[in-house]
Amino acid sequence: MSGHSTTQRPSLSDAIKETTQRYVAANPRSQAKFEEATQYLPGADTRTVNHYDPFPITIVRGKGSNLFDLDGNTYTDFLGDYTAGLYGHSHPTICAAIVKALEGGLTFGGPHSNQHEFAKLLCARFPSIERVRFANSGTEANLMSLSLARVATGRTEVLAFEGGYHGGILDFTGPDRRLNASFSWVMGSYNDPAATRELMSRHQDNLAAVIVEPMLGGGGCIPGTKEFLDTLRQESERIGAILIFDEVQTSRLGPGGLQQNLGITPDLTTLGKYLGGGASFGAFGGRADLMELFDPRRKDNLHHAGTHNNNVISLSAGLVGFRDVYTPEVAEAHTNRGEQLRARLNLVAEKRGIPAHLTGLGSIMNVHFQRGRIRRREDLLANRLPTDLFHLEMLLSGFYVARRGFMSLSLAHTEKDCDRLVKAFDTFLEQHEVALGFDLA
Ligand SMILES: Cc1ncc(COP(=O)(O)O)c(C=O)c1O
To answer: With a 6 A CB cut-off, is 405 part of the ligand 1 pocket?
Structure first.
């Protein structure tokens, strides 16, 4: 950058300082609530990803595609709770299902018909799922699948990938892994089939499971290549390891999840997020011969416990949502709509010649402020300043997105919502063109 004067042009850190001041001025009540809550919750927080500097807004209500905060601001919600909010806020069909469930009693200590019907539907929709079990979160579904794989194979090691996210204690998106569950991890490189093949051969006698997101979600919305995922399928079969597709996010990307689009059938699949209709949810399922180990009629059955495994609210909201709202046709149309939105956003950046690019598939996407193609986790630059700035500016313009630039399209979004998002992104790029252009060049 030696040819440019650095004295006059605005830098990204200057821009963030100025934007933060505007953000603080716009959110006095949220700031006060945040400070008070630090007395009771560590950092006022009970889900780390919900925190961002200088403090997060406190949300009071959601309706359709909108969120409302304590200071009276309205946001168009393009976070969609990291894909759990597929249906938008208070979808009438789901609300009705929840009210009906409430009236019939909440916690039974026994089976109920929603669990039967929802299980049947999941088996019908997802190609790999012959039998399914419910849990309370995606994390729990992954933990159960990994434990099942160890029992079924009599082996101990698990292959996971750098950049993968499978839950708060199964997190490979950053360097700090102190909280991770202590499985015997073998770490592989995402979208590197040759290195993965070699790694799997080296561990072929000890590998119980391979766990992978068919698209890295928390790791930056990087789709797995067909070649990479095919390699995992072939090699795990060859060495007798269980292939687990974590489709907690990606199961929405087609009528039968990303596995159906790719034509790859894993041994086990894990689900969560939107499939609870907005309530807490997890599920894992797959090959009948593996899942039948949980059949309580067997003498050697595996004991799968969990007070709320068949939570009445989650299963009724989830069933109605997936059966009556997110039908196969809607899943396809919504995925196409997401593709179009991402293309429009990318076009805006391209036209302005600014190094910004959205990765993702269908209704799930992530903006990255850098040049060049992003195919591997290693391609991502570590610079967080542009996404911090993007996040604060989008909040100030009335768009709720993730700090890391993650966004998802919900069923509640109108075309007008999408048009406004595209316009706001263009305005942001125009407003910070110089800082973004120079700092990222
Ligand atoms: C791909 C993936 N797997 C698992 C999880 C964990 O799900 P939960 O937060 O319900 O435990 C998440 C959550 O973000 C996820 O994105």
So the answer is: no
